Amino acid sequence: MAGRTVIRGGLVVTASDEVHADVLIEDGRVAALAVPGTQGWSADRTIDATGKYVIPGGVDAHTHMELPFGGTFASDTFETGTRAAAWGGTTTIVDFAVQSVGHSLREGLDAWHAKAEGNCAIDYGFHMIVSDVNQDTLKEMDLLVEEGVTSFKQFMAYPGVFYSDDGQILRAMQRSAENGGLIMMHAENGIAIDVLVEQALARGETDPRYHGEVRKALLEAEATHRAIRLAQVAGAPLYVVHVSAMEAVAELARARDEGLNVFGETCPQYLFLSTDNLAEPDFEGAKYVCSTPLRPREHQAKLWQGLRTNDLQVVSTDHCPFCFVGQKELGRGDFSRIPNGLPGVENRMDLLHQAVVDGHISRRRWIEIACATPARMFGMYPKKGTIAPGSDADIVIYDPQAEQVMSAETHHMNVDYSAYEGRRTTGRVETVLSRGEVVIDEREYTGRAGHGVYTPRSTCQYLT
Predict the structure, then answer these.
(1) Which is it for the CA torsion 447, 451, 454, 460, positive or negative?
(2) With 0-12 CB in 10 A as exposed, 13-18 as middle and 19+ as buried, what is 204?
């Protein structure tokens, strides 16, 4: 690793500031920022960022590499998925280790460590999916918090797989209120949705678009409301993942107006795609099947509003790719058998920059929702998510003028389609540093599997 690197002449953009500055990196960390040209810093490497943005590496707090789902596995491994993340300007992911029913949290966590260790191009951490709440599980939650796995995901959806009932959810929330953990909730009423799925299939409604029609926005809003009130009873903070419906945003806004520690995440697919995609002919809509589902286009304005008012705090990807050929096709003739998930870890930073160009959010808000807040929410700030003395030198040189066309032909995710095929965007990642090491050098991959290291996390730093 080069000992000293200087990035000269760029506009450094963080969640709090925009300033023209030179950045000095020593031994993998940011050592200093200075007015351009005022320091005679010697360096092993100098990067010219004139006319470019110098931004923190993205923190994607919601990915699913190698996730088993619906009789198959997510198509990105930790190696391919983290490499694609680097190409897209993301330098830290937090993936989900899975507890299987009848097994311990520890077994699930160990299995995910084994998948990731030595394979990642960028740094990574883990949340823990809790599928089986019992006295042993609750004790294990305390131990995991102590060792840096400080967030636990529960599901109000997927009965028979990940589902927890209200009593199990309340017990886990009560435990997290004591140990400082953060409960992340997939908020959809899965029991009611399963009834609607059964009825739709009985009517012969089997196409992908019906996936969106049975997973009703009201059932997302109802579950979001219920999760909020259970958290309130438990005295615990709550983070609702992949919010897609305006009615669910309204529930979060109401809770936050009451002063509750309730947070919401949305994803690029809900901001840029809609039920129009699910309705694409010839089974093409299967490419867009994810849960929560894509909503009608009018929901997008409320999601952008939520991001501007901070009723939604984070944009993550829920990256969970399945190839169209051989995986999504498992659901031909039965939408309920289509593996749920979209590829997106490589596209997030560029799509959100396009939102800056389009006037939805400011530059600093872009960095806030994609870098700083996810780092704070999940106990990694200021090591991750900003550019400041002492922070890890996870830095992206970003060209705000470059234009690109998103396509499966050119992306680096291990999946045979792009959810954003043909979409023109302005802005592109040029160079990426991970802990001071250049992993993308002027649009050339120079990273390696095994550079990325596991990152233990402290508890949530975003509580009011």
Answers:
(1) negative
(2) exposed
Alpha-carbon gap, residue 316 to 168, rounded angstroms: 26
Helices 105-116 and 135-146 pack at an angle, to 10 degrees, of 40
Report how far residue 375's alpha carbon sits from residue 367's, in angstroms, rounded to the nearest whole number. 11
CA angle (70 as vertex; 67, 72 as ends), nearest 5: 60
For the segment 393-420, what is each residue's pLDDT rounded down to a tens digit?
999 999 999 999 999 999 999 999 999 9
Cis peptide before 400 (omega within 30 of 0): no
Find where tokens 């990731």 sit.
116
pTM of the model: 0.98
Write the single-letter amino acid at 88: G
Q: Which residues contact 244 (CB under 8 A, 6 or more apart)?
A: 217, 220, 266, 267, 270, 292, 293, 294, 295, 299, 303
pLDDT in tens, 307-354: 999 999 999 999 999 999 999 999 999 999 999 999 999 999 999 999
- Cis peptide before 292, with omega less than 30 degrees from 0? yes
Half-sphere exposure for 178 (CA within 13 Å, toward CB): 10
HEC readout, the chain:
CCCEEEEEEEEEECCCCEEEEEEEEECCEEEEEECCCCCCCCCCEEEECCCCEEEECEEEEEECCCCEECCEECCCCHHHHHHHHHHCCEEEEEEEEECCCCCCHHHHHHHHHHHHCCCCCCEEEEEEECCCCCHHHHHHHHHHHHCCCCEEEEECCCCCCCECCHHHHHHHHHHHHHHCCEEEEECCCHHHHHHHHHHHHHCCCCCCHHHHHHCCHHHHHHHHHHHHHHHHHHCCCEEECCCCCHHHHHHHHHHHHCCCCEEEEECHHHHHCCHHHHCCCCCHHHHHCCCCCCCCCCHHHHHHHHHHHCCCCEECCCECCCCCCCCHHHHCCCHHHCCCCECCCCCHHHHHHHHHHCCCCCHHHHHHHHHHHHHHHCCCCCCCCCCCCCCECCEEEEEEEEEEECCCCCCCCCCCCCCCCCCEEEEEEEEEEECCEEEECCCCECCCCCCCCECCCCCCCCCC
Evaluate whether 122 touches 85 at the Cβ level (below 8 Å).
yes
